[in-house]
Input
Amino acid sequence: MAYRNMAGKKVLITGAAQGIGKCLCNEFAKEGCVLIMTDINGEALEKAAAELSAGGASVHTYEVNVADREQVSAMAEEVIRTHGGLDILVNNAGIGHNAEIVETSLDTWKKLMDVNFWGPLYHVYAFLPHMIRQGRGHIVNVSSGQAFFRLPTWGPYSIIKLALGAFSELLRLELKKFDVKVTTVYPYMVNTGFYNDAACDTWGSKLSMLLLPLYSQSPQRVARIIFKAVKKGKAVEMVNVLNGVGKLTRMFSPVSNVLSSMTLLALGKDPEVLKNQLNIN
Output
């Protein structure tokens, strides 16, 4: 069901200090929503909030590490107590990682899981009981187009985003009986600081980052698409037609295998380099 009027809706956005999150705040602010912005970077968060407040937006901020269950729970309790609940929860915060699975440490896996998977779940479980009690609510989970492409050298990130997407789509079906909506978002490549720390150890990775502005979308554009999807109450937002192509290739194993093999050829490391890196003799 679409929203007829979003003015006054209380919207919490994680990872709101920059990138897609900050742009989403702008979109909801234009509709007169009450913004509840959270981010782990307190300084950047306050700067972003000040810009929105100067434009007349109603803004409240919480410095929160989404991977810390206790911080998320404490923040949720305060939001419910102070603001009387929440209408829309946007699980946007996330971190990237590009490396082959063999060179990805278990500690890195845990960090990725804590932020990209457990972070959204902590927020869902913190706010869902209240949404069910009030008989309404909307949860937005930002996954990734990598859930469909599952490209080599981005394996751990793709796997976790795939899990989040599956969780979100199943959650939507189960929450319909409580009149709580769920929107699952699959952004394509977005030209933000998200890729600043991407490892560029091969010619393919260097070229892909160099050409990023040519095949990626701006965070403003992506935020606008996500906002429209939320306003329309869409179940799934693919963001870019190429994500649909990626999803389609999963139905044809030969096609997806060729795509994966070509990606590994371009982005993958030489076996000897990997063995030396891992001290395997």
Summary: The chain has a mean pLDDT of 93.
